[in-house]
């Protein structure tokens, strides 16, 4: 898992049936200090995240276990909205 910031949305009328009804968001990966790494990805939103929010992104087979994704083709899922981050 890693931290990310929602920077956009993706609308796709033609997609794999396992993604039907899913909201797709563009997420910029963040460091633990909340600085952008320069890497972006598309993630399925399972928690109702919005633009500009800091989120937790699960990857790989763990992403498919989130929410109702079941046997989805998704490789990244937003599984949490972050309230605060503390590093030492």
Automatic annotation (TrEMBL):
Superkingdom classification of source: Bacteria
Annotated GO CC locations: bacterial microcompartment
Sorted UniProt keywords: Bacterial microcompartment
Gene3D superfamilies: EutN/Ccml
Compartments reported by the entry: Bacterial microcompartment
Protein name: Ethanolamine utilization protein EutN
The encoding gene: eutN
